Amino acid sequence: MNSTLFALAGFAAWTLLLTFILLNLRGYYAFLSKNKIALNKFSPDGSDVQGFGQRLTRAHLNCIEMLPSFCAIVIVASLSNQIDMMESTVMYVLYARILQSVVHLMSTSVIAVVLRASLWGAQLALLLFYSYKLFEVYL
Q: Of 3, 15, 16, 96, which has the fewest beta carbons less than 10 angstroms from its beta carbon?
């Protein structure tokens, strides 16, 4: 497997791991917590599970927001035989995503938010660069 497909699979696996943790957290609040929340009453933005629960929900949603674009770019690059243009930098997309999530889970301090935004910006910049390279032939 080349590094582009590995990065995409890693991004998806990271998203699934956060989904699994979130599922368990919601199960805890539904069945074990003193402050139970009915399964059909969870807020989609995590505002009903303050602290770590809300940060986890947002980190998970951040992954879901970026994954389709990353996937589409990899598919187009693969189908157009241009996947090699991503090989040298694509792992940075995965590294930045994981670090962004970890920082998000740890804190919402100003420094953490700036770091998180920088990591998101790095991912966005790489995806925009790949998109440009894919369409460069038509420009």
A: 16
Locate the domains of the chain by residue range: 3-33+47-134
Backbone dihedral angles phi then psi of residue 80, each to the nearest 5 degrees: -100, 15
Class at the top of the CATH hierarchy for domain 3-33+47-134: mainly alpha
Q: How many CB atoms lie within 10 A of CB 81?
A: 7
pTM beyond 0.85: yes
DSSP, collapsed to helix, strand or coil, labels residue 21 as: helix
Q: Is the pLDDT of residue 137 over 80?
A: no
Residue 81: left (phi > 0), alpha (psi -120 to 50), or beta? Answer: left
Query: What does the pLDDT look like over 8-23, one tens digit per residue?
Result: 999 999 999 999 999 9
